[in-house]
Amino acid sequence: MTDFVPPDFVAPRALVADAFRLEPLGPQHNDSDLAAWGSSIEHIRSTPGYPDGRWPPVGGMSSEANLGDLTRHAADFEARKGFTFTVLDPATDEVIGCVYLYPTRSTEHDVDVQSWVRADRAELDVPLADAVAAWLEADWPWERPERHGR
């Protein structure tokens, strides 16, 4: 198995735009993250990249279960097995979305890229996806991202 990123690659830890800021997702985001996706389940499920209907869970999840997910994503980031970023409102530091960069099973792509924003921030969906695409091209090592039609 090949490495997801080259051994000498230093993963970017931020992307800053006028309407949002990305930083690595971690346990410190638990309450705001749970509120963000919990308020937007139908919207997220209709977002490109979430076709299997498994996430987010229709019934939500407990704070403890969400904390477990965030802890796993943070561990993946540190182990360089996947990179999950929380999308924050730059004015309030509230979680307004998430970006996932993980290995893909596809032989046609080298990274699976998924993102979502809260339903009340739906106007940021395309600008976020476009900013992430430009960021991947400029600062990340992959050449064939799977952007799920974006």
From TrEMBL:
The entry lists its GO molecular-function terms as:
transferase activity
Q: Gene3D superfamilies from the entry?
A: 3.40.630.30
Which key words tag this protein in UniProt?
Transferase
Protein name according to UniProt: N-acetyltransferase
